[in-house]
Design brief:
Largest sheet: none
Strand content: under 5%
Number of helices: 4
Number of strands: 0
Shape: elongated
Order of helices and strands: HHHH
């Protein structure tokens, strides 16, 4: 049985041999879009822009929109009347996907004749 003794000199020689090689190791991760990587603020701003565009593109096509976009549409419910209708459709789609909302059409009261008109 051969015993190998550890010595500082031997360890130093092994380190020198490893650093002498001219092999470059590629850095991990996604390459930068320009000359430098994006900062955290730039990444977050880009994510917000993508989310905003996805929410705008999903208006009218709520059935095919991902859940994250449907939730973004629900957040814009108070913006305008079309946004409110889109939010209603988004809520109905979420309910349909997860089976917790039953959507029924309510009869319109404006077209119902009234007995009490003067």
């Amino acid at each position: 049985m051969a015993l190998i003794w550890y010595s500082r000199e031997r360890h130093a020689m092994q380190e020198d041999a490893m650093t002498d090689s001219s092999a470059t190791i590629a850095k991990r991760g996604r390459p930068p879009n320009g000359e430098r990587p994006m900062t955290a603020a730039e990444r977050k701003r880009a994510q917000r822009m993508r989310d905003s565009r996805a929410a705008i593109d999903a208006i009218g096509d709520e059935q095919n929109a991902p859940l994250r976009v449907l939730l973004a549409i629900l957040a814009r419910v108070e913006a305008s009347e079309p946004a409110r209708r889109s939010a209603q459709r988004a809520w109905a789609e979420i309910g349909r996907r997860y089976n917790f909302v039953s959507v029924t059409e309510q009869p319109s009261t404006e077209e119902t004749p009234s007995r009490y008109k003067a």
